[in-house]
Design brief:
The chain has nine helices and five strands; from the N terminus they run βααβαββαβααααα. By secondary structure, the chain is an alpha/beta fold. It has a domain of 137 residues: Alpha/beta knot (3-Layer(aba) Sandwich).
Length: 222
């Protein structure tokens, strides 16, 4: 999928990766669950402020991020957790097994463009079981240049997985953080009309009205 790349010369918050004007750290809410979460982030994706893989590592407590370098792929023992079954999410995987226990699972998410994810899968595809999720509906990742049917952001895959495993509290909490990430990204780009359209159907309106009001305040040179 196409991603927008913002020059790293732009001043950004070290935590949320937004510009200071649209910093969303005040809305940070950690997500917890018994599921072990790891994200393999392609080296190119890692520097993109819109990366939802890095969003996962900021929000999901205990999650780990690993940068993928084609020249020096990661070692299996540095990622695979002992005592847990590893699932690698991929559209061409097995159907989601029934009765899975989150505390016994580790999920590995591949964060990058479709071609980058393919390169990573060639390295890690045999480390665990490939699982395909029942994902439907339009993507909320409005930061993509050309969203298409069946294409979702990395964090959306985790949201769907939480839902499928019955981890509803984690699903709802992560969804809010993702929505906030997208909204701030749109405002950072100056896409106010698109951000307002996004917000019209977002749970942020009722979940974080005070934060949205604060972000919407007029400021000098804003």
């Amino acid at each position: 999928m196409a991603r927008s790349v913002v020059l790293e010369t732009t001043p950004r918050c070290e935590r949320c990766r937004c510009t200071p004007r649209w910093c969303i750290c005040a809305g940070h809410q950690a997500v917890t669950s018994p599921l072990a979460v790891d994200v393999l982030i392609h080296k190119r994706e890692y520097w993109r402020p819109t990366s939802t893989g890095r969003l996962i590592n900021r929000i999901v407590e205990g999650s780990r991020g690993h940068i993928f370098w084609q020249e020096q792929p990661p070692a299996r023992e540095l990622i695979v957790a002992p005592g847990r079954e590893l699932w690698i999410l991929h559209p061409r995987g097995d159907e989601l097994p029934a009765g899975a226990i989150p505390a016994n699972l580790q999920v590995l998410l591949l964060d990058g463009s479709w071609s980058e994810a393919g390169s990573m899968l060639e390295v890690v595809g045999q480390w665990g079981r490939r699982i395909s999720l029942p994902m439907s509906g339009p993507s909320r990742y409005w930061l993509r240049n050309a969203p298409g049917a069946g294409k979702y952001a990395t964090v959306e895959a985790l949201i769907f997985l939480y839902a499928a495993l019955g981890l509803t509290a984690a699903e709802s909490a992560l969804r809010l953080q993702f929505e906030l990430h997208v909204y701030a990204g749109l405002r950072t780009r100056g896409a106010k009309a698109l951000a307002d359209e996004f917000l019209a159907t977002s749970p942020l309106r009722t979940a974080m009205p005070e934060l949205l009001a604060k972000l919407g305040e007029r400021r000098p040179n804003a």
